[in-house]
Amino acid sequence: MGMSIPASVPVADEQLTSAPLVPWQLVVWDDPVNLMSYVARIFRTYFGYPEEKATLLMLAVHNEGHAVIATGPRETMEMHAQAMHGFGLWATVRKAPQ
Fold first, then answer.
1. Is 21 within 8 Å of 90 (Cβ atoms)?
2. Domain residues of the chain, as ranges?
3. Choosing a second label site near 17 at 20 to 30 A (CA), which of 11, 33, 61, 97?
C-alpha cells in the first residue's frame, strides 16, 4: 500500500535556500580543422553577433586557444555547446568565475 507524507512534515526545498544561480560560460576552443572565416560566420549566424564582435571572438579563439562566446544559465550553455558541436566546433561549458 502506498504511503503518503503527512501534511505537517516540512519538505526541504534546496533551491529556495541555495545561493543565487552562478552563470555558466560557453567556451569555444581552437582546432586545426575549421577556417577562421567559418568560425566567425558561425558566431554571426548562430548567435547573431555583429561582424566586428564575431571577428574579435574568432581571433581570440585562434590566438589564445579559446574564448568565452556566451554566458548564461547552464542548460542554455549546454544547448549552445551541442549546437557548436553540430557545426564541427570544439566547445565546452564551465562555471563562470565568481
1. no
2. 33-95
3. 97
SS (H, E, C) 33-63: CCCHHHHHHHHHHHHCCCHHHHHHHHHHHHH
Give residue-wise pLDDT tens across range 5-34: 444 444 444 444 444 577 999 999 999 999
Number of residues in the chain: 98
φ/ψ of residue 54, rounded to 5: -60, -40
CATH for the stretch 33-95: 3.30.1390.10
Model's pTM, two decimal places? Answer: 0.78
CA pair distance 52, 57, nearest whole angstrom: 9
Whether the CB-CB separation of 42 and 35 falls below 8 Å is answered with: no
**Alpha carbons 34 and 32: distance in angstroms, whole number:** 6
